[in-house]
Amino acid sequence: MNIKEHMKRLPPWTKRLKWPGLIMASVILFAIIAFIVILFGGRFVVSEEELILDEMTTVETEDGTIIERIYTKNREIISIDEIPIHVQEAFISIEDSRFREHSGVDLKGILRAIYKDIIAMKKVEGASTITQQLAKNMFLTNDKTWMRKTKEVMAALYLERNYTKDEILELYLNRIYFGEGTYGIEAASQHYFQTSTSELTIAQGALLAGLPKAPNSYSPFDHPEKAKQRRNVVLSRMYDTGSIEAGVMKQMQGSTLAVERSEGSSETWSNSYVDLVIDEAAQKYHISRDELKRGGYRIIVEMDPDIQRIAAEKMKNGEFVPGASGPVEGAFTLMDHHTGALVAVIGGRNFQHGDINRVNSRQAPASITKPFAVYGPAMMTGSYDPFTLLSDERQAFGEEGYSPRNHDDHYDGEVSLYQALMESKNVSAVWLLDHIGISYAKGYLEKAGLPTKDNGLAIALGGLSDGYTPLQLTEAYGSLPQGGTRKNSYTIRKILDRKDDVIHEHSPETVEVFDTQTSWYLTEILQTTVTEGTASAGSYNKALAGKTGTHQDEHVWFAGYTPEYAGVLWMGYDQSGEIAGSSVYPTRLMKEILTTIDQQKNLASSFEKPEGVESLPAPIELPVITDARGSLNLTGLALLRGTLRWSTPGDDRVVYRIFREEEGEDVKVGEVTGKGEFKVSAFGIFDQTSYYVVPIDPLTGKEGRPSNSVTLNWEL
Fold this sequence. Notes:
By secondary structure, this protein is of the alpha+beta class. Helix content is 36%, strand content 17%.
């Protein structure tokens, strides 16, 4: 019997049940599928990537002092172990009292919500658990639709199967918004109470637990009465759920809000430094600004907050060179030359985040490059030392007839290398560069971190097409107190990730620029430059070596170093503009900053001479002798003896050569060192022979002016 025949023999009532049965079976099958989808489909709603919350990055010093926070959302993630039980219970009591029992969905709450929705004929009440709220906030929109609610349930079930209750609660408390730009329990605790979550009282925890429902409406700052009422509701719920006793509830409900608004600060003292940190993180460690805003890193930096604050205040309010085009800008750096660590950076007089950070702006360096472009390289040849004589006469150089002028338009004919550097003689610098060779000198500029594509003698005077940044010059000057070894500057000591694992750490890079002897010679000369030369403006009573520079009345520099730090101070306009002053201004301000730092740090009074190097003798200033005189007296056996005398300056290193005037060419009759007397033989009683004295610098061999001419006369 086939199937058709069998169907024909079935009772008639069975035929009537055929379609309803199929419909019922389909409904049951659909319900089973829907149940399976709801139960296991959450994996398609939940994004593991989105479970990683955006977290602020902190910029802090080694001792944990937070300098600034970098974030899109003000959130600091903490572990559930750092959240007191009474704070956890406050949120559970008001948001989801059966949180510890249900599996992500509270069926009783859902039935109650459905009933009220049906009565109202619209969606009026939710029954979301903490897990559902977390799912909605992280993966879904706020639309009140059945589809969204279904996805919410799916995600909640998934979270409950794959995460513990503590993990879910930790995510929830770190995720929710508490108003006034704060996300997460720790940021809220710091914002409203100026304390960490671990220190929150029961009342404080209850106040925070009441905020997420309507952060603006329950703001304790803007609506303290509503905030107190909401807090007390939470405390009541905590009593209802058994989290606190009645006595504690009453006591806490009678307490004040105890909120404390942090003093709003418009200070910008750290902005320049932090902007440099952000740039360094991107360029050196390939962490973008956007990643810093969400990545939750801890960046340990080398800033000294005391010095940074001092520098920021002085740069903002100190005396700047006058300018014809409005206020003049400035930049300041200070680096620990032992390590290359930048302890202070000021990129502008009132620097705001995103401004031009002038410590990285290129400017013509003027004369502050002379130690690296001319004098250091010259001494490295072995043919020049600090007392080698250089030309100091107006002259033209090369086929193009390059003719530099000294800044004061005064020329000495010839000067020592020491004097040329101390007094910043332009002609001598160009003359010396011409002799040692441009390509040779550029090699040392490269080592000093000051490369240039220029090939003219103007390199000697810092007349460059591109110029250098204050940071480059800081590194270069930092090499001199380190025996000629340059260290790359840096701000970031190390970077830690969310787990506090070190993912990046500074690795020092060094380059040898000059040998130790040349560096020490330059240090001694530049110390004299600060006390007696072009950098003598202002007052600083501790050890300091440095050099000034002025570029065509457009901007001015001071660059130098103490035994602890190397630093640069620049003043000028970002583009074009004429200043009405000299390098006196940055020199004075640098010394003022160092003086204030010294009051806190007690900086060194002298540089320590490296082992195995020679000290540089002080330059000799040749005297001008105008009081030479001669006398005759009778010695034994009736012999006549003459004596020449003159005043001496007290420097017993000066050599005095005595000449007798003769027809044709004068004759040297002797010399003495450090004395103002010389004996000569007389020719007769009426001897009218004339003599004069010439002072000689034994360091340079330079002759001074001859003294007045004298003859021998009888002593009475």
